[in-house]
Amino acid sequence: MAPADLDKRAELTVWPSRSLGRSAEGRPFATLREALAAAAEDAQPWIITEAGDILSPRWIRANSPPAPCSSRIFNVRA
């Protein structure tokens, strides 16, 4: 996958992880970057790129930007 692929269309599909007989529905995104960001929120995300590549949940986790963590600000006195 080339860096330019991040700016092409992609479809995010989430399969229910523990529900038998349920179908998955895809959500189109303008770019793969947007689909990767949205996939970070879902349990079993799969992405189909404009070129037809199928990205597994493992690939998505390995290549997604880190999720912003909620952090506290501590006052430290010297």
Fold and architecture overview:
- The protein is an alpha+beta fold and 78 residues long.
- The protein has one domain.
- It has helices spanning 32-39, 57-63; strands at 10-14, 26-29, 45-49, 54-55.
- A 4-stranded antiparallel sheet has the order 2-1-3-4.
- It is globular.
The major beta sheet can be summarized as: 4 strands, antiparallel
How far apart the termini lie comes to 49 Å
Radius of gyration: 16 Å
Mean pLDDT: 76
Beta-strand percentage range: 15-25%
Q: What count of helical segments does DSSP give? A: 2
Question: Topology, pairings included?
Answer:
Layout: E1 10-14, E2 26-29, H1 32-39, E3 45-49, E4 54-55, H2 57-63
Write a concise keyword list for the protein shown above.
disordered C terminus; globular; 4-stranded antiparallel beta sheet; alpha+beta; 78 residues
